[in-house]
Amino acid sequence: MDCFAPYQRTFESALQTLRLPETPEGLYDPIRYILSLDAKRLRPSLLLAACQACKGNLKEAYAAALAIELFHNFTLIHDDIMDEAPLRRGKPTVHHKWNLNTGILSGDAMLIVAYQQFESYAPELHASLLQLFNKTSLEVCEGQEYDVAFETMALVSEEAYLKMIQYKTAVLVAAALKMGALIAQSSEEVASLLYDFGMALGTAFQIQDDYLDAFGNAASFGKQVGGDIIENKKTYLVIKLQELGNQEQQKSLSRWFEVNDADQQTEKVNAVKRLFQESGAADATRNAVKEYTLQSHNILDRLEEKQVNTTDLKAFSEALLVRSL
Fold first, then answer.
1. Confidence class for position 318, pLDDT limits 50, 70, 90
2. Which domains can be identified in the chain, with CATH numbers?
């Protein structure tokens, strides 16, 4: 995503200004470690882009961008613990490199450091940013809980699934964009439109992620294709199969979900993918991505009418959503 490279470089420079205490090393070294891992910095870059699109001062947005990235990485540390994940971005997760207690404590400290970033803003702006940050933080936690709860549910409604992915993924993207507008002192209407753009974009991205996990190219997708099928995850594809599939297709899905033998993983993935295609779930998933993408672009058109320069935001959304779908 070359269109966002300047914002990513700008944020990396801002990140270098973050000063954490030297001691105790066991608390702060894990924070330095996860922040040093290769990352796209998409959320803070979006915040900076929104600020610039609204003719704001990028330097004034650095602290909020740091808060967003710190919070995001805090959630990654704790998510890895919950998932018992050994690797993050190809490197050992914090709780594997150190231990479980360190992962919990350093994650907690990281959240507090994120809150500290807002202290540099004037009282009125500080209050607005903090209110949005608090709302978003709770929604992310709620989204994670919904995701965990879905693991033991036989059926998940489309409405419940959309709420889960929007809370887990989209709200932080939306909040980053809105913060950029607030820092640029844009109108509430513009800030709200940028928030709505982020919600639509984040939703499209996550549904697309579900699709690519089954039908994407492993090299370009960057993950194991079929991983969600192997883990019996309630993805958008599964929900649409349960909705659109005939009785035999639904029974077949249930039978394959009972298969956990490592020797049958390839057969399981191929069989479930056929069910997605034959039931119409694959087509419905692609159509949902297109629908939310169109929503995001319509919002950008409305922002242009408000004299917001959406060039970079539009280029970013197109680059993000054209991933071999």
1. confident
2. 1-120 (1.10.600.10), 124-325 (1.10.600.10)
